[in-house]
Amino acid sequence: MRRGNRIVLACIYWAFVLYVFVPLILMILMGFKDSKFIGFPIRSWTFDWYTGIFSDAEVLYTFGYSVIIALLSTLISVAVGTWIAVLLESRKFWGRAFTFGLMVLPALVPGIISAIAFRIYARWLEIEPGMGAIIWSHAVHNVPFVTLVVMARLSTMPKSQIEAARDLGADPLIAFLRITLPYLVPAILGASIFCLLLSFDDFVRSFFLGGYEPTLPVLIFAMLRSGMSPEINAISTVALVLTAAIGIWAERYTRNANKGSL
Amino acid sequence: MSTEGSVSNDREGPVKTGDERSFWGRLANWGPYQTLMSFVTISPRRQFFILAAFPILWLLTQHLGPMLQMLRVSLLDAYPVAPDVAQEFSLESYFKFFGDPIFWMPLFRTLIFAAVFTLCTLLITYPIAYFLARHVSRKNQMLLLLILLIPFWVGEIVRTYAIMILLGNTGALNLALKWLGLIDRPIPFMYTSFSMGLGMVYLTALYMLLPLYSALEKLPKSFNEAAADLGAGAWSRFRKITLPLTIEGISSGCTLVFLISTGFYATPVLLGGPSTTVFAETIAGFFHVAGDEWPTGAAFAVIMFIVALLVTGVFQRLMKSLRKGESS
Amino acid sequence: MGDYKLNRRKFIGMTALAGAAFASPAYIRRASASGGEVNIWTYNDFVPKSFKKQFEAETGIKINIRLVDDQGKQFNLLAAEQPNPTVDIMTVAGHRFLQFIDSKLLAPLDTDRLKNWGKINPTFSESDWATINGEKWGAPILSGMEVLAYNSELVSMEEALTWDTLFSDKYSGQTAYIIQDMMSIVMLMLGYDGNMVAYLNDPDKAAAIVEEAKQFLIRKKPLVRKYYDSGAEVQQMFVNQDIALGHSWNGPAAALINDGFPLGMTIPREGSYGFVYTYNIANNAPNLDNAYTFLNAILASPEIGASMTKASGFISTYKDASKYLTDLEKRSTSFPEEQLANLQFFRAEANKMKYGLVDPAVEAVKAA
């Protein structure tokens, strides 16, 4: 019975994998089409789109720019989000529900609205549009995702561990850094992946808060005006391969690091 | 994952604050640090305020700030205006919504769509989360989750166009069906609720999958085994034990997905048909097409936000009473 | 008090940025050139790459381009940056001038400073829409129009000569259009002035006309496959054969033709509207002199105009630009004289009244 269940569930999982990967495969395929538009039928194939990307520094530069924005904004989101999670899980206090509501706010506001709200606010704060402003808006937008994930993890943490440490004379900061933080690592890693993804794919905020350097989605939107060309697919494929490589490397690295500590 | 790792780490010697050799020991015995900590921990109250100060400041300035700006704009009679024109407060933008039924339909439709997509996403992702959390070894869980994440590294727009060439009249799906001899004329999949749903689940699956996965992962396996020993069938085990214990995850996943999917713009616009206009499109119109009706756009955004919050409030209530009913 | 407030705001802003801003200053300013810079908001490929390289080498002025993808976003951005914009030159369509001018976002163009002004075809540079309040507001670069595009393997040229085909039962479920644009065209089909300038003094008549056009589109709603927004969408629908014919701008349609797709386009006999993209100088532009240097340089040669056309599919406003096009490109960017006679330009004078009526009508059509 259990075995049967398992097979059915495995089938559902792999069917879902198929569903999310088929458009991806089509996208990669179209990057090799010798035409200015994607779609079937494909009459001839070419590598020109790829040679174009690697001979034009602009696209790779834009990719790097987006990656740096994603990394820095994630760093801020994770630090702030974890801090807020610790506050919300620490104990009951007056206004906790309100604080929680404030915390989730940025995640729930539709993109265009949040982008324009940020733009108005940035102007009021006299923040110049540009890289710093994009990082700021991404960081704020992603905080709730970090906090929610970290809170879920914190709530499963056995209180006894912290108490034991405190009994042994550790002050709250050291107890947090030595016990709570290591316990939170998986949650923080998961949240980081999520933040990186959200930042890397964000168009509206990057557009409204950006300066004269486009991020990858902004560049793609601008290119889209002259049609969905295989070039865009090739760029996305290159970005996908590069980020996947970075991701796999990071996963390996943390896995090995964990093994080492065991 | 590394839960075990950290626990076993600490087992070899909890926190040796007294140990002079370790970094932590040296830090704990360092004079300035001790002064700082004794200042901070002088009372639980002060400790709490120091912990709370930064988050509260951040939440008020960064989370609430932009929204208050938005609210302010929604209450102006014109924005943006030329530098020398005076602005006045007005509720006109809100009257515009309540005065004209043509704006109610897209809002209502958006709520229905969001609810349906939330339900679909739940039905699709629950078995997957269940599979990952209960039937896969811990070592592989992360890997199988990461596999699902890969396609999300492709931008929303590029992915949406890929769905178009999958479902179009000369798209991959129609070509495949024709090649199999199942159809002679292409089936118009595109620009229907179907194509829109297919694209939307792509966007929402992640938000549902993660809370469900973490709820299911927490569930001790022993519960199920004990029930099996008592002779409970698979279905009743699921209904009586797994489902009630994961209702928290279901409720938070659904809330998140519902609220987020009310705000989707690009995918429904690109994949939807002539009768699937969503409210976000209406709102964006005030900012994009007209360009100078920010107050109306902002007011509509505030309305949508409040309505969506009300709906989720009712939903949360419902889930809470359900949970109580189950446990009694 | 005012000072204090400013400082506090700045402080909040600075703390928000602290972590982010100092991390990688190299990315914020890539290079500063000897001759200063000029900041431009424009569509992809509206400033040809080869021109950019040459201009920067010859003048020492660095061109910073911010890519935009629609008119409304430029307006929003510029409005948000007022009163001290970062931008010198924007790309506004002629019929949107009034909105920018009313909000004091544009500076009038001093054509005496542009010795190459005469290289623009006077059809565009001296047209009625180009002069507002006795001033010129932009240098025309590319011209577009609303056309009826059709898959020539499925639809005949004769059928495509009238907008009626777009609403015929024969092509039910195989058509697409942009509703906002279609409202103006339907008014024209019904025999009215789609610019609504004629009804400026008769708002009741204007409302009745918009209502009639709205009812027409609602009646025809069951026949349409898709109300779309962007050129890329209509191109993809043609490629996927989701539609056989549709309303389109000539630029995206021409790009498909140039790629070898069996597409045709006409200006139907009921008439249609044209519009012109122009380069404009922002009010309080930070690098005004460089902006004029840039405008003068980009207008210098018809070859530059031709390369803009090649990239965008829109028709060049430069005299003799078509000399530098291939035969296929010439074909995709020209129309027979008798069709061009049906064309008129969008006018902005009545826009406030027109869009006050049309925008809710569009919502009503979508909601129907």
Write structural notes for this entry.
The complex is a heterotrimer of chains A (262), B (328) and C (368). Chain A has 262 residues and is mainly alpha-helical. Chain A has a single domain, classed as MetI-like fold (Orthogonal Bundle). Chain A is built from eleven helices and no strands. The longest helix of chain A is centred in the N-terminal third of the chain and has 34 residues, at 57-90. The mean pLDDT of chain A is 83. In chain B, 73% of the residues lie in helices and 0% in strands. Chain B is an all-alpha fold. The two termini of chain B are 35 Å apart. Chain C has helices at 2-21, 25-28, 49-59, 71-81, 97-102, 122-125, 179-189, 203-219, 231-239, 250-258, 288-298, 302-312, 327-332, 337-340, 351-367, and strands at residues 37-42, 62-67, 89-93, 106-107, 131-132, 135-136, 139-151, 175-177, 226-227, 245-249, 263-266, 272-282, 315-316, 343-345. Chain C has 368 residues and is α/β, with parallel strands linked by helices. Chain C folds into two domains: 31-143 and 275-324, Periplasmic binding protein-like II (D-Maltodextrin-Binding Protein, domain 2, 3-Layer(aba) Sandwich); 144-272 and 332-367, D-Maltodextrin-Binding Protein, domain 2, CATH 3.40.190. In chain C, strands 3, 4, 7, 8, 9, 10, 11, 12, 13 and 14 form a ten-stranded mixed β-sheet that branches. Chain C has a two-stranded parallel sheet with strand order 1-2. In chain C, strands 5-6 form a two-stranded antiparallel sheet. The longest helix of chain C has 20 residues, at 2-21. Chain C has 15 helices and 14 strands. Chains A and B meet through α1, α3, α4, α5 and α6 of A and α1, α2, α4, α6 and α7 of B.
Helix and strand string of chain C, N-terminal first? HHEHEHEHEHEEEEHHEHEHEEHHEHHEH
CATH class categorisation of the largest domain in chain C: Alpha Beta
β-strand number of chain C: 14
Name the poorly predicted regions of chain C: 1-6, 18-33
Quaternary organisation of the protein chains:
heterotrimer
